[in-house]
């Protein structure tokens, strides 16, 4: 990608963006033809340049779901770099972005569970509850990830949300996801036993 395009995205320079488009009207089409690419939207999302990122969405909405060569979408990168406003704007554009599977099958929802960002977790589940069904390539649910990451409070948030949910699939999720085996055949309770996490057991008993 042109160094000036990278500069425009990193600094949020929309005037430079359109200058580059005038010089090369097909610049984004060529990028879109590449299956995996670190697009200007990736750069802007990681830098927290929200206005530039949204301008890119207007011009090339497909970039919002595109993975870069490392296997990450713009939302993945915004989360990794703690650019919350960028994450929220992407969420407004398309709630389905929290279900985009990146490297090793991790979604943005998986990321907030692993990092214990309960505020974003609640926002994500509110707009796209179905995302709770998504599993990694190791067949890990959000519950596995919370326990494996020692995010007990996040685990409590997930269980509490599931118990209070009025979603038509909530009862099925309660039965399936909490007893779901990962690639090694371990359920959440197995993981808790292996890692000696008695509070997880207590949480199940209190349901």
UniProtKB/TrEMBL annotation:
Organism the protein comes from: Gossypium laxum
Entry-linked Pfam families: Ank_2
Organism superkingdom: Eukaryota
Taxonomic lineage: Eukaryota, Viridiplantae, Streptophyta, Embryophyta, Tracheophyta
UniProt xrefs under SUPFAM superfamilies: Ankyrin repeat (SSF48403)
Gene3D superfamilies listed in its UniProt record: Ankyrin repeat-containing domain (1.25.40.20)
Name this polypeptide is given: Ankyrin repeat-containing protein
Signal peptide: none
InterPro entries in the cross-refs: Ankyrin_rpt, Ankyrin_rpt-contain_sf
């Amino acid at each position: 990608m042109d160094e000036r395009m990278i500069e425009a995205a990193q600094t949020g320079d929309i005037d430079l963006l359109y200058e580059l488009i005038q010089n090369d009207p097909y610049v984004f089409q060529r990028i879109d033809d590449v299956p995996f690419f670190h697009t200007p939207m990736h750069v802007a999302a990681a830098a927290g340049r929200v206005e530039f990122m949204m301008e890119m969405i207007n011009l090339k909405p497909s970039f919002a779901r595109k993975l870069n060569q490392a296997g990450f979408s713009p939302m993945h990168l915004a989360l990794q770099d703690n650019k919350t406003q960028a994450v929220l704007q992407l969420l407004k554009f398309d709630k389905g972005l929290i279900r985009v599977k990146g490297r090793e099958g991790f979604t943005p929802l998986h990321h907030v569970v692993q990092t214990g960002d309960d505020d974003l977790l609640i926002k994500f589940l509110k707009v796209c509850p179905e995302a709770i069904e998504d599993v990694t390539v190791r067949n890990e649910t959000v519950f596995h990830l919370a326990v494996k990451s020692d995010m007990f409070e996040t685990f409590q948030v997930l269980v509490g949300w599931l118990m209070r949910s009025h979603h038509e699939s909530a009862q099925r999720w309660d039965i399936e996801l909490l007893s779901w085996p990962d690639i090694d055949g371990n359920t959440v309770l197995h993981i808790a036993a292996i890692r000696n996490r008695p509070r997880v057991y207590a949480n199940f008993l209190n349901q």
